[in-house]
């Protein structure tokens, strides 16, 4: 059992139809047929959406996504139409709201990995493969791969794990031509972002993208290259053979699995509220990632 500890009631806005409450985002449809995505300050860990929010997280995710969409614009079109607030929207939606083109979404999490860690490491230790792709012997946690790899996953409902699948399974589900497009777009976007991040002293270990079609055109959608969808490591501290320091919610995960939290993740009990020092430390990491990548001061 998992999901929301306390599922929020969506804000109702005249002219907008609420479509979905995700782990982080609320999704609406406008009268014009566009999608309105509002990033909250919610944080999830171990398949639970926690009762404690991280201040500014939604704004950081939104503003960082916009910055990355610009960096990738010559490679891939994106779905953002406007950052303006819909009429009647609450003031606190400012900076966390995107009005986006409605797309025919592809039901695949498009994951690119340049370094071995997480579920990829777990599979490699058992089979020396990741999503059916053979990798060399001798790799450890944090190893850079010989070349970036495309390791897709099926999209899961809130509270469930995405499941890694082979490229062949993606081709079976969406067709060979679309699978080829997804792999090429994912690896091109990852490679560009990896090089940009590297120039700013950050290792982009892996990331996931979501795509949809606008007619016959493949379009980059959802959020992109944020600490929620990516593993960012400080380059100066990168050391294969151990877990890496990271710009994400690792503080949250570490506290939840510590004796201090008193929570057993194997139980069906929801996790407890986060203490203020964990909230503050997590916010600091999100802001630091934004500032280091974009070269601008968060305000």
Automatic annotation (TrEMBL):
GO terms for molecular function: phosphoribosylaminoimidazolesuccinocarboxamide synthase activity. PROSITE patterns: SAICAR_SYNTHETASE_1, SAICAR_SYNTHETASE_2. Its EC number is 6.3.2.6. It catalyses: 5-amino-1-(5-phospho-D-ribosyl)imidazole-4-carboxylate + L-aspartate + ATP = (2S)-2-[5-amino-1-(5-phospho-beta-D-ribosyl)imidazole-4-carboxamido]succinate + ADP + phosphate + 2 H(+). The keyword ATP-binding applies. Pathway: Purine metabolism; IMP biosynthesis via de novo pathway; 5-amino-1-(5-phospho-D-ribosyl)imidazole-4-carboxamide from 5-amino-1-(5-phospho-D-ribosyl)imidazole-4-carboxylate: step 1/2. Residues 19-269 form the SAICAR synthetase/ADE2 N-terminal domain. Belongs to the SAICAR synthetase family. This is Phosphoribosylaminoimidazole-succinocarboxamide synthase. It comes from Streptomyces edwardsiae.
